[in-house]
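Page 42, continued from yesterday. The earlier attempt failed because a stray header line got pasted into the input along with the sequence. Redoing it now with the clean sequence only.
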Amino acid sequence: MPSPSTGTPSPDWTDPDCPVARTLDLVGDRWSLLVIRDAMDGARSFTEFQRRTGIARNILTDRLRKLTAHGVLTQQTAPSGRRLQYVLTDAGRDLFPVLLTLRQWGERHAFEPGEPHSTLVDQHGARVPDIKPTGADGALIDADTTHVQKTGGERHR
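This time it went through. Structure tokens are written below.
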């Protein structure tokens, strides 16, 4: 699969015209999103990712390579100077709202009422408020108030 920045269509894309499908092709599997989650939470080394996720070494190696190749992670020399560490790129940090939305959906739909779960808090310890998408006019938007405009001007859902 070519880099998304090349703009070169690839037969490997699930749906070459759909940004959602391309994003899922790049980062949409369970392990990739958990690696990204942990990188956002401070994990940097192969060992940290493996300990936090429980992922098999071969799968973790594959995901780290893929995320690095697609510009979500980059490798840098660790402060000790003895090994490399993985750090989110700007593109990787841009996935924060995606993970936040998944987290908030999970809080509402993946737990029984009262069942304990982790909570994302800001730098002051306050729970991060729910994301509420708004349109250009500031009004709330959802699946009923938006549509996909395909290339060539077609409208589809």
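Notes: The CA atoms of residues 58 and 139 lie 46 Å apart.
Reminder to self: strip header lines before submitting.
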